[in-house]
Amino acid sequence: MSDHVSGNSDAHGVALPKFASSPAAMAGFAVIGVIGLVVCFLTAGSADRAWGSYLLGMLYWFTLALGSMFLLLTFHASAAKWVTGFRRIMEVCSQGVWIQSLFALVFLLFGMNHVYEWAKPGFVMGERGTFVGFRNFWLSHARFFWFGILYLVAFSLAVWFLNSWSRNQDSSGEFKWFRKLVRLGSGGVPVLGLVGTSLGFDWFMSLDPYWGSTIYGAYVLAGGYLAALAFTSLLGHRERTGKLRDVVGDFEYHNLGKLLFAMVCFWAYLGYAQYMLMWIANMPEEIVWWLRRFEGEWRVVFWILIFGHFVVPFFALLRKVFKLQSGWMIIVAAYIMLMHLIDVAFLVLPSESIKGHIQLSDFAAVVGIGGIHLAFVLWRFNGVVVAPRGDPNFAAPVIAH
């Protein structure tokens, strides 16, 4: 293939439009975000609980943005053609990593000592856990902080390269940018997958310092990947008769629905594998994590996740005709994002470090951080061409109506 791709200004003879964001919507989300954060810290009851709610909101929106980044990496690694029309949505959504990195930095500087049990002064790992010496090293303030900075830098740089190289491809039409993105995806999936797994161990699993699961990091990443795919589906179907009308067709929407269905099953498989293996082994240091989540309202949440996060979307996405109905898919996608929020709350709030019940500050933190996150994403969407017109996969007709 030549190093220059012609015909980049049009898609099938139709000039590509640009996304347009309402200034009023951006300002509205930002105001809601600020109010939400204020309400979170005023209603939490204590500084420890307020930062616990903050962590819940941050992790939900961070995993959503992180999932968009991993979507891009996997699609570039496989050089998938069908997804090209949705790529701009994923690229802009992945930029949410940047605003969430600021929220995470605030938490690392001011909040971690209020949330993580092992980060509080005087804590020493007792005999309850295995590998006590290693855990005392791993669960140390300095190691946690600097690894957190490493995570944020690695993900922020990956998002920058994914977006800037894609824009360079549009402006120059040179095939070298396509090759760079494929290489970034191929190398980034395993490397950043390991970094993301470590983040899952640090920011999620260490909330229960005496408990461990080798599959936990993959479970966290799978949840974020699924939620990001649902967000892409929601935005894509919302623009099906609008900005994406002449860019994406039934074939691509069907593929998006099939992948969403597959990820629902994969998330359920990881959750079942973790639960089954620990419950069968019946070891005290392992099942305590589950026992804490079988008490009070969390037992109800456990069953909500089984039926709501797997059974309901499984049947909602089972038939092809469902995957092609935009109104239906918008509802299903929003529902899956809600289930991801419940899943993150199930991982975070009942932990040994927080031992919390669901309260107003949790909702306020999710709305607060989410409002600022959505305002930032809308700002980044404004003026962006709806599809990567410089991509060689996009230059040839890929739409099947």
Total beta-strand segments: 2
Mean pLDDT: 90
The succession of helices and strands, N to C, reads EEHHHHHHHHHHHHHHH
- Which regions have little confidence, pLDDT < 50, spanning 5+ residues? 1-14, 396-401
Give the overall silhouette: globular
**Distinct helical segment count:** 15
Proportion of residues in helical segments: over 70%
**Main sheet overview:** 2 strands, antiparallel
Explain what the structure shows.
By secondary structure, the chain is mainly α. It has helices spanning 23-43, 47-78, 87-94, 96-115, 132-138, 141-172, 175-204, 216-238, 250-281, 284-292, 297-316, 320-323, 326-348, 360-381, 392-395, and strands at 10-11, 14-15. A hairpin with a 2-residue loop joins strand 1 (10-11) and strand 2 (14-15). Helix 4 (96-115) runs antiparallel to helix 14, helix 8 (216-238) packs antiparallel against helix 9 (250-281) and helix 8 packs antiparallel against helix 13. The protein starts with 9 loop residues before the first strand and ends in a 6-residue tail after the last helix.
